[in-house]
Amino acid sequence: MSISRRTLLGTTAAAAALPRMARAQAPVIKVGCLTDMSGPYQDLAGPLAVDCAKQAVAEFGAKGFTAEVVFADHQNKPDIGAGIARQWFDENGVDLIVEVANSGVALAVAAVAAEKNKAYICSGSATSDLTGSKCNANTLHWVYDTYMLAKSTGGAMVKAGGDSWYFITADYAFGHALERDTAGFVTAAGGKVLGDLAYPFPGTTDFSSLLLQAQSSGAKVLGIANAGADTINTIKQAKEFGLKMRLAGLLVFISDVHSLGLDTAGGLVVSNTFYWDMNDRTRAFSARIKDKKANYRPTMVHAGVYSSTLAYLKTAQEMGAAVAKANGAATIAKMKTMTFDDDCFGTSTIRADGRVLHPAYLWQVKTPAESKGPWDYYKLLVTTPADEAFRPLDKGGCSLVKA
Question: Domain 147-277+359-387 is in which class?
Fold first, then answer.
């Protein structure tokens, strides 16, 4: 398909300084950040995700090759995302695609990466199918997924007495996977799912009728199986209507909490794999990129784009840039043999199914009285170790996993 000027937003070089002759002769690794630049996920991913890819390139420097970052807006449409990926791989020399904050688009891009033997590392989409039934040798899943979110947030809610659920679900791959995985934990713990409603995505802003139907179900917990602006609107409207249900925001980003404010979000329980104020290293990373978006703190998607780009570049250096460029599956296979360490996630390893392993964290959003200032939003409840946070390797149905 053809890609319009509006869709293919532009290209920016982010290579370390080299003498002109050396730069001309060095291989060029090209990284494509495919993201939501203007839609419901623009704050949790969007332009700052592009900046984080550039930050990784700048910090890596020039070590036998140069690197560039290009970016585009997939508009949350799988056909557009797949079209951009094909154009990048076929015509623009892109070697790696990162981010893609939409599960439907991510599944489409993963298929194109496998077809073209290039590399794709997902940070922004959540569907656990990327390392399950839809896994392939060219794709890694870096930050979080629906299984981890369901186990961490959903499991905690059931243990706290939330044994009957109703779901409001974004009607595409991500929403359905998140509801499916959470419902599995609810029923396994002896709870019940009393109903669900899927709404059109994107484009829905009024959740009032959905909330009223959820309330009438008699369920104790409302499972909010959406993200970004939709999560913000769902929680705000639930508070405005005085909904008599406990809210389970199954994928809540710090950008959502900031938009909601602590008066509304205080007390929510959320899960993630990165929080900007968790330790000295996460604070150091956040400080390095804060000038790219004033008065803002990075989400776990932003952290994932930085971390995954840096890891890919380190792998390309070890195996040789020309080899990495020639064979995406070989590069991904090499990454699965390596251990990575960065300021966002600490130590990470990668399983055969493409699942990147690091701890998951369950947080409670602070009340206004508990917060010490802007962006001081979370207090830690539970840490799930890396080897327990994600779906067991033999339970996902990935064809790459040997019996």
Answer: alpha beta
